[in-house]
Write a structure and sequence with these properties.
The longest helix has 14 residues. The mean pLDDT is 90. The chain is an alpha+beta fold. The strands form 4 sheets. Strands 2, 4, 5, 7, 8 and 9 form a 6-stranded mixed sheet that branches. The protein has a 5-stranded mixed sheet with strand order 11-17-16-13-14, with no helix packed on it. A 3-stranded antiparallel sheet has the order 1-3-6. Helix content is 14%, strand content 33%.
């Protein structure tokens, strides 16, 4: 029996998990739980299985299902923790045309449970090789629990320990790439700003973005973030520390989802840290104008921003963009324009 949040066995993951999930429905219904839960096998044996199953469960009142339809909004995020590689894909193919109209009675606030069992090997193109992974699901402004799993050999399979040692040694000799996007003036920045957040006390990421931003000529929408992370081996700079040279350059994946269920966007950051190299966790800062990235378009919309590292996730940070003509510009000037 798995120790995961849904208590599923290997047989449940390989077959139909519905009978096992029914054990939870009574409790969810009694509490009228509004939840988003994912589970996966602790070990997926490469020599015995051909799929990497993930079970996604969405128990919620029907009103919550109507507001953010599972089939329209669910997004899967998978990260390979040792190499800090992240895949972000919709759980379901995006339909052409407008979303279907829900013809259920709006006054009917019953209860329902949506489930899905995607094969991560097929869905995200998961490499069929040994590795440790972390999976989560996004549903508009909601993020699921994180579930870890490992791809590896079964108890009967032979695994050469020298391969893992070889890879670790090579990664420790690698030099991280330069920060990305490159620092600019005024943005992006990788130094602390007066109105930016401080790094958290525990490993994690903190995001700060204007809740509402104006779409005026020359306007910006600056996302400010800070982190405390354990760098992967290849993210630390080998050798002695040098003044003005980052100790490490760590990868973060930013994800932007639209409140209407379309337009999934991602942006990969490489963020430097100048902390002493002997520390287990390192801190850093970043600030960038979202309107100068693929994460936001200059159109009226509400988006939710998430961040994913090798072992952490953060968000959502919500931002709504509104047109400048929503203000009485015919009668008054914005502060930056007042002489």
């Amino acid at each position: 029996m798995s120790e995961g949040p849904l208590g599923l066995s290997d047989a449940d993951f390989q077959g139909d998990p519905t009978p096992a999930l029914l054990r939870h429905v009574g409790g969810w219904l009694a509490e009228r739980a509004d939840a988003l839960i994912v589970d996966a096998p602790a070990l997926i044996p490469l020599d015995l299985w051909q799929t990497a199953p993930l079970v996604v469960c969405r128990p919620a009142p029907r009103s919550a299902h109507r507001q953010a339809p599972f089939e329209q909004h669910a997004v899967v995020v998978v990260t390979e923790t040792a190499l800090n590689r992240t895949w972000v894909v919709p759980l379901y193919p995006r339909p052409e045309g407008p979303p279907p109209v829900d013809d259920e009675d709006d006054e009917d606030d019953g209860y329902g449970v949506k489930t899905a069992r995607p094969d991560l090997r097929a869905l995200v193109g998961l490499p069929w090789q040994p590795g440790r992974y972390r999976a989560q699901v996004l549903l508009r402004e909601r993020i699921s629990n994180a579930v870890g799993f490992r791809l590896g050999g079964s108890a009967e399979a032979y695994e050469d320990p020298e391969v893992a040692r070889f890879i670790a040694a090579r990664c420790a000799q690698m030099s991280p790439l330069e920060p990305e996007p490159p620092a600019g003036e005024p943005w992006p920045r990788y130094t602390p700003t007066d109105d930016g957040p401080a790094p958290p006390e525990q490993p994690g990421v903190v995001l700060n973005v204007p809740r509402v931003a104006l779409l005026a000529e020359g306007s910006t929408c600056v996302l400010r973030g800070a982190f405390r992370l354990s760098p992967c081996l290849h993210e630390r700079r080998p050798g002695e520390a040098e003044e003005g040279v980052p100790t490490a350059v760590m990868g973060l994946t930013l994800v932007s989802v639209d409140a209407e269920g379309g337009g999934l966007r991602t942006l990969r950051l490489r963020v430097p840290s100048g902390d002493p190299p002997d520390q287990e966790t390192l801190t850093g800062h970043f600030a960038l104008d979202l309107l100068a990235t693929p994460l936001l378009d200059r159109v009226e919309s509400t988006r939710f921003i998430y961040a994913f590292g090798a072992e952490v996730s953060a968000g959502p940070a919500a931002v709504t963009l509104i047109p400048a003509d929503w203000l009485p510009l015919h009668h008054a000037a914005l502060p930056s324009e007042v002489g």
